[in-house]
Amino acid sequence: MSKARLLRLSAAIAAAMVAAAAAAAPSAQAGQQSQQSQQQQPSSPVAYRAAVLHFTGDPSAGGQSYEYYEDGVLLVGADGKVKAVGPAGTVLSNHQNVQVVDYRGRLIVPGFIDSHVHYPQTEMIGSFGEQLLEWLNTYTFPTEKQFGNKDYAKGVARTFVNELVKNGTTTALVMATVHPESVDALFEEAAKRNMRLIAGKVMMDRNAPDYLLDTAQTSYADSKTLINRWHKRGRALYAVTPRFAPTSTPEQLTMAGKLLQEYPDVYMHTHLSENKGEIAWVQELFPSSTGYLNVYDSFGLSRKRSVYAHGVHLRDDEFASLAKTGSAIAFCPTSNLFLGSGLFDLQAAEKHGVKVGMGTDVGAGTSFSALRTMGEAYKVIQLHKAFTDNPAEKKPLTALKSFYLSTLGAARALDLDDRIGSFKAGNEADFVVLNPNATELLKFRSARATSLEEKLFVLQTLGDDRTVERTYIMGKGQ
């Protein structure tokens, strides 16, 4: 046999072996092959088959709050929106001749929503040993100085967006820096993935280094320019962003309120009652106020689409005020533990009907992972038992509630539940494929979970970015 013929025969045998291996591969490999075909927006509806979970209400409110299909299908249209969700047999019989992406053995949930995060702090995550005010001066402000350089900001924004996607986060409410360039860089990176992002230029005209200060008037003018440039451009939304009351003069907070009046559908994003030293400082700076929240209220900043990060040390009257104005709180457990700020009282927020979403608060927060954040949230709520004479009155945070706070609950906090956070027909198809067998320990433990809630609790306790097999944004695999 000639050498050329031998080479042709070897090539044919190799090709046959590859084809046979592909045909015999399990559904996970079939899913991977289907994933590759989803790199571009599909031109016809696609059925994603797996266990499927999404929420229809708040689990703590009682009644049926979720839909779960052990063998389910999420049907996504060519427009990147949800067409149907339900049992696989029902959906596939009603929508025949659609492409099926097989993720059986996995769990599909709506994309995670991060209610509070600082993208410039990505590079200083895990900085050692301070509480809030010292931490800002030691680490945060020097880091943020660099974001006046648009190229520098773009590099960090790229890493930030990649980390969100890697961890299954498809929407985030983000603080940039005082520099308009930092906002442009972030929105440009998010637009490349068609990601729904809410962000704004920090307003800060006192009690910070000179190199980070703007003025009441320039912060108003810069914010107005950015609103006109980015708000509702694609999936981008703008947030008026005074950093927190101590770094804004009354004149600047007045301008923030003016922006909200002029643009009533934008967001307001700031910090509230994170640290006891911070609260005392606010009282010194605003001696006529009745409390930290009252400072913001007096400038017209509390309203629907106002999101306050932390709220660790709120009084009952402040919870009631937040509920009355339709404002929301971003619960940031890893940050609150890392900086020693305190324990957020989720039970009090529920009692008063305050909207709450989960936030990572990177870089004081120590992970981009919504799963790890849920795991830490459980610990925060558990620790309340150690500081009361009646521990039985403090209820544990259930896994269902945790997943709700990172999906539909966060969407409600951001006034976006008509578009994201669940698989309601017509919603934008942002979703995540979670693999309960992603690590040996997770696989071992998941095999012993007998209920949905136990399976979810294992995911949030042992899961991380490795658990996120695939993230989809508007139906497009990332």
Automatic annotation (TrEMBL):
Its cofactor is Zn(2+). It comes from the Bacteria. GO terms for molecular function: guanine deaminase activity; zinc ion binding. The keyword Signal applies. GO terms for biological process: guanine catabolic process. Pathway: Purine metabolism; guanine degradation; xanthine from guanine: step 1/1. Its EC number is 3.5.4.3. Residues 1-30 form the signal peptide. Binds 1 zinc ion per subunit. Gene3D superfamilies: Metal-dependent hydrolases (3.20.20.140), Urease, subunit C, domain 1 (2.30.40.10). SUPFAM superfamilies: Composite domain of metallo-dependent hydrolases, Metallo-dependent hydrolases. This is Guanine deaminase.
